Amino acid sequence: xxxxxxxxxxxxxxxxxxxxxxxxxxxxxxxxxxxxxxxxxxxxxxxxxxxxxxxxxxxxxxxxxxxxxxxxxxxxxxxxxxxxxxxxxxxxxxxxxxxxxxxxxxxxxxxxxxxxxxxxxxxxxxxxxxxxxxxxxxxxxxxxxxxxxxxxxxxxxxxxxxxxxxxxxxxxxxxxxxxxxxxxxxxxxxxxxxxxxxxxxxxxxxxxxxxxxxxxxxxxxxxxxxxxxxxxxxxxxxxxxxxxxxxxxx
Length: 250
Ligand code: NAP
What we know:
Layout: E1 5-9, H1 14-25, E2 29-34, H2 41-49, E3 54-58, H3 64-77, E4 81-86, H4 101-129, E5 132-137, H5 149-169, E6 174-181, H6 187-195, H7 200-209, H8 219-230, E7 241-244
Parallel strand pairs: 1-2, 1-4, 2-3, 4-5, 5-6, 6-7
Helix pairs in contact: 1-2, 1-8, 3-4, 4-5
The chain binds NADP nicotinamide-adenine-dinucleotide phosphate.
The site of NADP nicotinamide-adenine-dinucleotide phosphate has 29 residues, from α1, α4 and α6.
């Protein structure tokens, strides 16, 4: 059988790059989608140096036509995509009274509209294949987080979207799940530290003190969970939100 083809969005760095690299290690051909094709050069080089197959595609996941073109390009160049990891994300944190319309719309567009557009484009190939895996990145912020009304609403919305797709697509052999990470050390959390004027190492130490396993998460922690959910053996796990946060969340 040909290798399965996966698409990972926001794959240039952070969690997306780790997920793409891990899925390639698992034997999948991987399309790395990000705003700028060139920005995926490093993870693509890592994957191909290890003998894997990778394709970088530039796309804004909130642009409907661009998403459809990008997914078709993956199908043409790598084969029909049947694994999708919706990971692209941005932050526009602010307390409600300071949150602008742009802050709200930008976060909704990338997280919620992007996840919707990508899933709709990829399900065509998954339903034809009668097999598929969709993994959506939510967050512990879905449970509420000061300064993140936009992000928390989008990440909670992703959980409802995930459960609904699981119900609609299950009969086609497609599972749909969400991973809700806690604090993961990436450029995103480094930017949050910078925004509040904290040194990133001190910021991580303070966060680790609140986490039962005593450390912050790594992109590989999330990649490991995505690998499980994308795998052949996870076919009876669907509509779930897995909190990967070093301790219990609900
Ligand atoms: P990151 O380091 O900021 O990486 C996000 C990637 O998404 C970047 O490469 C970014 O591209 C890309 N991106 C942004 N907007 C896009 C768009 N419209 N179309 C395509 N790509 C786009 O973030 P991360 O920490 O790895 O987070 C990845 C996901 O996990 C996000 O959904 C985030 O909300 C979620 N998450 C993260 C944490 C955490 O602690 N880090 C916790 C919970 C959930 P540019 O570089 O060009 O902007």
